[in-house]
Amino acid sequence: MKHPVFKLNNGVDLPAVGLGVFQSGEDGTVDAVKTALSLGYRMIDTAAAYGNEAYVGQGLRESDVAREEVFVQTKLWMSDYGFDKALHGFDRSMKNLGFETLDLYLLHWPQPKLFDLTIESWKALSRLLDEGRVRAIGVCNASVDQMRKLTDATGITPVLNQIESHPYFAQAALRQAASEIGVLTQAWSPIGGISRYKGDGSLDPLNDEVLVALSSKYDKTPAQIILRWHFQNGVSIIPKSTNPGRIRENADIFDFELEASEIAAIDALDRGERAGADPDVASVQYFGRVIED
Ligand code: A2P
Questions:
Q1: Considering only CA atoms, which of 38, 45, 39 is closest in space to residue 24?
Q2: pLDDT tens sequence across 96-155
Q3: Residue 227's pLDDT is what?
Q4: In terms of pTM, does the model score above 0.90?
């Protein structure tokens, strides 16, 4: 089944569900990409910082699907921020992927304390867009104010903002404000995998009674209910899995529809507490990660 698409603010189509590969290693990434493409996925999210761009490119080349049929996005890491460094970081990612052009290039974190560098990096991404080396550019973990500043500096508004979003930290207000300036929201950790790293597991939305009840009603798993909720809220999703059964499950969400009251019930699970890194403090030092050639 062909997946539905979201229309980005520059007219490019983004398949509504993509494969995430955060923390997928070499074999895991190659196999997950091949499995996903064979099951109808046409979108993949990676990042320079994940260290697996080369395996994404390899998986795509070893699949039966042509490069131009797949929407691939990757991200510039903070140690490559700055105009010239960003262009160099892009070349490194393209070499790793083995691609001529990229579908979407994203700034990984906004770095509010070094925002001038973020703006210089955004100017470099705008240059890549002008040159036709990328089809679209966007951001991750950004506020509306930060996105406006990037637009003011270049005339180019990000096509999307990839943020932590799952039932316990939905970020509905940010999503709404972003949509008012034409920016699509894309959820990272869409089924709340990041919450499971915390505490005793009681924060896992997959065990939430509201989601478990809807799972029985629709004969879908709690993960599918969550992914469908994102989709009906107009949110792009990139669930990570290296398990073939779960890769299949995560895209099998287009044959049922949640009622408005059910969407509202899931919206109401929001605790307003992030599980992942805070964009205000995320920096090269925070993650202790520098990417080198
Ligand atoms: P695995 O790769 O073994 O499937 P998120 O993208 O929200 O952070 O979630 C990713 C985490 O959730 C990974 O640990 C992944 O493990 C697991 N996962 C992915 N899909 C499902 C699913 N359909 N049901 C349960 N767990 C899942």
A1: 45
A2: 999 999 999 999 999 999 999 999 999 999 999 999 999 999 999 999 999 999 999 999
A3: 98
A4: yes
Between CA 186 and CA 140 the distance in angstroms is: 9
Number of helical (H) and strand (E) elements in the chain, helices listed first = 11, 10
List Cβ neighbours of 5 (8 Å cut-off, separation of 6 or more): 13, 14, 15, 16
Active-site residue, selected from the candidate residues 41, 50, 55, 81 = 50
What is the C-alpha to C-alpha distance for residues 157 and 186, in angstroms, rounded to an integer?
15
Say which residue the tokens 């980005």 belong to: 8
Any catalytic annotation for residue 50? yes
Residue with tokens 């951001």: 139
| Whether 80 contacts 48, CB under 8 Å | yes
Q: Which atom, in ligand 1's list, is nearest to the CA of 222?
A: 24
Determine the Cα–Cα distance for residues 118 and 213; give it in Å rounded to an integer: 44
Q: Name the residue with the closest Cα to ligand 1, atom 9.
A: 193
Residue nearest atom 25 in ligand 1 by C-alpha distance: 223
Task: Give the ligand 1 atom nearest the CA of 250.
Answer: 23
Q: Please state the φ and ψ torsions of residue 89, each to the nearest 5 degrees.
A: -60, -40
Q: What is the Cα–Cα distance from 81 to 248, expressed in whole angstroms?
A: 36
Residue with tokens 């990037």: 150
For the ranges 172-186, 249-263, 274-288, the lowest mean pLDDT is seen at: 274-288
Q: Which of 41, 241, 247 to mutate to test the pocket of ligand 1 (most atoms within 8 A of CB)?
A: 241
